[in-house]
Amino acid sequence: MRALTWHGKHDVRMETVPDPEILNPRDAIIKITSTAICGSDLHLYDAYIPTLQKGDILGHEFMGEVMDVGPKSTLKKGQRVVVPFTISCGSCFHCSKQQYSACDNGNPAENQDLGQELYGEPMSGLFGYTHLTGGYPGGQAEYVRVPFSDVGPIVIPDGMPDDDVLFLSDILPTGWMAAENAMIEPGDTVAVWGCGPVGLFAVQAAFKMGAHRVIAIDHFPHRLELAAGFGALTINFEQTDTYEALMEFTGGIGPDAVIDAVGLEAHGFFADNVVDQIKASTFLGTDRPHALRQAIVACRKGGRVSVPGVYGGFIDKFPFGALMEKGLTVKTGQTHVQKYLPQLLEMIGNKELDTTFLISHRLPLEQAAEGYRMFKNEQDTCTKVVLKPGLELA
Amino acid sequence: MSDVRDDAPSYVSKDSDVQTSEAQGGEGTVWGHTVAIMRPREELYAYWRDFANLATFMENIVSVDVADATRSHWTVKGPNGNYEWDSVVTEERPGELIAWEAQGDIKNSGRVEFRDGPPGHGTHVRAVLAYDPPGGLIGKAIATLTQKEPQTSSRRDLRRFKQLMETGEIATTTPPNREPHS
Ligand SMILES: NC(=O)c1ccc[n+]([C@@H]2O[C@H](COP(=O)([O-])OP(=O)(O)OC[C@H]3O[C@@H](n4cnc5c(N)ncnc54)[C@H](O)[C@@H]3O)[C@@H](O)[C@H]2O)c1
Ligand SMILES: [Zn+2]
Ligand SMILES: [Zn+2]
């Protein structure tokens, strides 16, 4: 089959690789009909996250048709499914608490050692990510093997187009959980750093959960416009001092909740960010947490900090004093995708949530490498790239 | 320093004499680890007690042939061919504990305990394995075969046991870096 493989920093290629096979009784093989490129893929593309190997197949946002099933799968051939990016068994302690992304059993035992050393606990399994998370081949391919197919995938009713439901695989539940983790109360002002797909869905979700105002922060005008389209106030951090603006909007007390939807590759010419960039490029540090620092400093006393943005290693100059002295609550994590699927699928069906506004580019899978280049270099207008095997460009 | 010990298992002690105190046959290396498994104690006990099952989740075991209620014959991978020995159960309490010890030159013993975890937290399975001193036969064999410390290998075995018991299968991936043939 054809698949997008990683070969190093800014080097991804379409290659012919062996087709996936059923390896375990609960597996299924899915024929991909749509798959997307995510901000998390950019962290891999930019080689910020370690333990990828040359030839690894990327992609964790995908859907398609069931081609083959193991004897313990509950799926049926021909069904259309969206697959969560988290590989979860459904029966361990964490899964029983619906903390699916903390599943104990998704990651092969031999891939758990490094996570145990680095984080004190092994990571769970994720598609198309790193070998810390299992080294599972991803879905930017013609076919993919899906373990625990009786727990993860959600069956899509006939008549719902791929573009409406594809983002159930990651960014829609991620934006939703980001807002849930902000523990929004009536009257709240919620500030969201980053108007990428995750931030934009967090903006929508925050309003659904009763936020009085949402303030969206980015430097790309088109992305800020999309946030404004959902009713958010905007701050362009290149034109405006973000902290001062937030204080003005909130009468000097700060937002009730802050959401970091940027992650470890913050942009911008800020003193701390420049230092972080130098450290990261010389391996003295790993992450560039400018947005997270700013969010913590701006948050009101007793407020909440929600962090969907991905971090992988160590953070310098983390304002822990501000966190403690202001009595903030932090909630974060890879998304517990399975927990949110039924509810979000229903909201899409009822047209309560719009997902397709995000898609700026639809490309044949064969042009995946070009898709990465655009999503990386033309972020303002390239908001989301969806890849479709066999798509004929008109 | 006082002689009174804390409540932690002996094998996590910083004192090397305490650390090896659970060895049944005077072995020099002791490894212990506890893992929480969301299955009933009796079920986990029963699977482990049938030693033939050990080969399903322990990567270095080729086979264990059960001879009678207490004796079994173990075949374990070595760098230059397999090692074999007979093992005998030295203690058992159904649903709670199994202890065994190898007979002969290749000294090793094991003990696994099954206890209820806190409410809602499954069964705590605690395995304690003892083998010859560091650099001895078994330690070297495992290290050569698997390119890692025997402790690492045993911890992985216990994770596979948990996966098998909780999910009915052992997580695996297709070889990630198999050669693309473009
Ligand atoms: N928790 C999860 O399970 C999960 C799931 C998916 C994605 N993520 C993570 O969420 C983050 C966002 O993903 P995305 O797909 O939206 O990525 P993206 O790269 O498309 O968007 C990030 C946005 O942040 C903006 N930004 C950069 N620096 C900023 C700053 N200093 N202040 C304000 N905005 C800034 C960028 O301009 C960009 O628009 C990534 O870290 C991604 O890995 C997490
Ligand atoms: Zn994603
Ligand atoms: Zn699980």
UniProtKB/TrEMBL annotation, chain A:
Cofactor(s) demanded: Zn(2+)
Domain named Alcohol dehydrogenase-like N-terminal: residues: 25-153
Pfam family, one: ADH_zinc_N
Location of the Alcohol dehydrogenase-like C-terminal domain: 197-265
InterPro entries from the UniProt entry: ADH-like_C (IPR013149), ADH-like_N (IPR013154), ADH_Zn_CS (IPR002328), GroES-like_sf (IPR011032), NAD(P)-bd_dom_sf (IPR036291)
Top-rank lineage group of the source organism: Bacteria
Keywords (A to Z) from UniProt: Metal-binding, Oxidoreductase, Zinc
GO molecular function: oxidoreductase activity; zinc ion binding
Ranges that cross the membrane: none
Family: Belongs to the zinc-containing alcohol dehydrogenase family.
Name assigned to this protein: Glutathione-dependent formaldehyde dehydrogenase
Gene source species: Sphingomonas gei
TrEMBL record, chain B:
Domain of life: Bacteria
InterPro entries, per database record: COQ10_START (IPR005031), ORF3 (IPR047137), START-like_dom_sf (IPR023393)
Ranges for region Disordered: 1-27
Listed Pfam families: Polyketide_cyc
Domain Coenzyme Q-binding protein COQ10 START: 39-142
Family membership: Belongs to the ribosome association toxin RatA family.
PANTHER family noted in UniProt: POLYKETIDE CYCLASE/DEHYDRASE AND LIPID TRANSPORT SUPERFAMILY PROTEIN, POLYKETIDE CYCLASE_DEHYDRASE AND LIPID TRANSPORT SUPERFAMILY PROTEIN
Protein name in UniProt: SRPBCC family protein
